[in-house]
Here is the input.
Amino acid sequence: MAKTGKQIQSDVLALLKSSTLPSIISGKVYRKGCRPRDSKAEDAIVIFTTGLPGQIQTGVVTINIYCPDIDPYENGVLVEDGQRCETLEKAGPMPEIYFLYYEELDWCTNMTRAGYQLWYEPRCTIFHKESQSTGRQSPLRTFYMMRNRMLYAWRNLPGMERCLAIAYQMLIVAPKDSLCFVLKGEPKLAKAVWHGVKGFWKLC
Here is the structure.
C-alpha cells in the first residue's frame, strides 16, 4: 500500500529519533513547523519534499540542524557558532558501528586528528549511571566492551601499534577476562568475551 508524504515523513522522523542523531545534537528532533520559535537549542528539523503528482512514493528527505548563537565572552553579545559547525564537518558524525561503548572515544580521536584540542568544563557536573542500558555484569556489556576495544584499536592505531594492540587483546586480555569470569562462576560472561573477539573479526 502506497504511503502519503506525511506518513513517510512520520516514519523517517521516528527512525531519526531512535538513531544516534539525538546524542549528537544538544536539542531535539522535530518535524518541519513544530520547532518552538523561542528554542535556543541545537535542534534537527526533518523536511520531506514529495515528488510530482502520481509519484506518491518518491521524494527528498532533508535534515536541517540549527546551530544556536553563542556568547563566547559572556558579555551578552551572541555570535554565530561557526567554529562548532566547522568542527562537526571536519570530524564527521559519531560512528554508529560501535552501537555501545567506545563511540565517543572514537569521535574524540577523529576531532584531534582533524586538528582540534579536547577541553573539559570544570564548572559542569555530569551524573552518569554506568551501564544502565546493559547492566554492570551482563553478556551484552561484556560482548561490546571486548569487541569495541579491538575495533577502536583497528580503526585508530597505525601499523605495528595496531597489530600489537589486537594481539594483546586476543592473547592476554581475552584469556585473562574469560578465566576470571569462569573462576567467579560466570560462564556466560566468559563466553561473551570470546563472542566479542569473534564479533570483531566479522567486522574486519
Summary: The mean pLDDT is 80. Helices lie at 5-17, 21-24, 82-91, 103-113, 139-156, 159-183, 187-203. DSSP finds seven helices and three strands in the chain.
